[in-house]
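Pasting as-is:
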Amino acid sequence: MTEDVQKHSVHTLVFRSLKRTHDMFVSDHAESISLDEKSHKMKMAAKMRTEYGPVLKEGRDKGPLHTSDPYGQLGYPLSDTSSDYLVTGTHLYPSAPGVLLTADTQMQKMPSEAGVHSIALALPPSQARQDACRTAASVGDIHRHAGGAERSQPPQHALSLLEGGGTKYSTLVAKKAPTMPKPQWHPPWKLYRVISGHLGWVRSIAVEPGNQWFVTGSADRTIKIWDLASGKLKLSLTGHISTVRGVAVSTRSPYLFSCGEDKQVKCWDLEYNKVIRHYHGHLSAVYDLDLHPTIDVLVTCNRDATARVWDIWTKANVHTLSGHTNTVATVKCQNAEPQVITGNHDTTIRLWDLIAGKTRATLANHKKSVRALVLHPRQYTFASGSPDNIKQWKFPDGNFIQNLSGHNAIINTLAVNSDGVLVSGADNGTIHMWDWRTGYNFQRIHAAVQPGSLDSESGIFACLFDQSESRLITAEADKTTKVYKEDDTATEESHPVNWKPEILKRKRF
């Protein structure tokens, strides 16, 4: 027979709820309740000891931490000086299930060694046979669960338990305050020379290994070779029937490689200044190419969402690296695994295993198309450029390091030298100089558009350091190639680092 539930009016129930709420939050909405001084002191003393005791080593010889400290001195008194406490129930300690209370164990001090071992030996035989070190671990657990190890045992004793019993307990270690490293000072860069001669946008640059000349590819369908020291034109190569988007000079043979929007990839013999090989297979415009530093293979990428690996000598298509869903804008090669890195308009970066021809990792952190990649010459890291951010990554798995924010434009090109100067060039004609380690933007350049060109035609399509890393060469939309060098007259006093630490960036190394 069930009892009838007494019914109350809504009015009564509402006021009951109000009364309960008022009682719960009376300290917030009414007069403050008087503070019990003794309880407050005991609470603060316990909190200071548990959180800061192991760090405040100097206080061990200075007596009690507080006059009302109920736990004694900072010297961590041993268990035989602690107070008694009453143990009730059948499970004396979590590590010893089923051990019944006795007259000897019901009233117990902070467990002494003898008491601990007697309890540990009372474990069931099946549990004792599980592991030779289980008893030792139980000893440590007994100390820990008794509530005294953290505050009643000296750190040396806790460490001995850790070594002897293999418990997971460890003493507090003072963490070092997080610091943000100060950027390294770099001298500012200034415009040194303007080289004109192309009749269209200059889209690509390559410097030869001997640092005597450099090559540019342009929208006027020509490839021009320039003397690096004087900036004078040495040679013009014709053969492409559309914009030349990529050039590369081999370090292993006297060959120059070029690709363009005419779907062609050409190999030029620089002794005869003519094309000796064609690499057929791309279905649309080829946007970039790169040579492997140690193997005679060439990697090209294009608008059909693939990158292709070619044998230089046999012209064979060794691999077709497929997986992207949009135009592959840039490709880079390196010695170590992963050997090929591609950036795509589908906002992803892929790291490829050249042997298997498969993707090793896909990085999807960017929100917009990735048009530029650069490998650090000394570190096992690389950077990618996108309108949302410049991101730094760590090989081999593409672990994220940090963002370089502030270049709010379509970034077409990146370059970095051994001194840690990262250069980013954008569609609006701006060049930003960054400190690689900290991501500090120490200089911004917007070169004047050359006479005869529109103000809107000021984009930076490619930039590259020469072999000495003392010159920066840029390919621009005003049909010129510009050369920058460091300002020799600048000092840390004349151009100080205007750096203010902001919110600490989280780095994953």
